[in-house]
Amino acid sequence: MLDSLTLFDRRMDLMFYLSEVRVSSYERLSERYGIGNTTISRDIHFLVYSMKVPIETKRGPGGYVMIRGDWTALSRRLNSRELKLILDIIPKTAPEDREIWISMIGRFYSSMMERDLRDEFLL
Q1: Residues 36-52, mean pLDDT to the nearest whole number
Q2: What residues does each domain of the chain span?
Q3: Average pLDDT value for the chain
Q4: 2-67 domain in CATH 1.10.3720.10?
C-alpha cells in the first residue's frame, strides 16, 4: 500500500510517521515504503531543507533517522486552561476512558509528556 504513494504523499507520510515513532532506521523506512535507501535520503533531505523538519540521521551500522527535540508534525497546542481542565477531568473518568484522554493530549504534545501522564494516571 505505502509503495504506491505519490512522491508528495510519501514525503508527508514519512514526516508524520517519524513525528509519531520519533526514531527509525533506513532499513525500516525502506521496507515501509518499498524504496531504497537513496530515495529515503532524498526524502529526508527534502523534509529537512524544504519543510524545516528537525531530522537527525546516522548512516551505517547502528544508524538511525530521528526527530530532534519534541518537534511534532501536529504543532497545535491546547491553551493552559484547556490542558488544566483535561488534567482535572482525567482522574474523575472511568479507568478505560483515561487512556483516550491521555492519547488525545499526546497528539498535541511530546511523547515524553504522554508517557508521564500514563505513569501518573494509568499505573
Answers
A1: 94
A2: 2-67, 80-121
A3: 88
A4: no
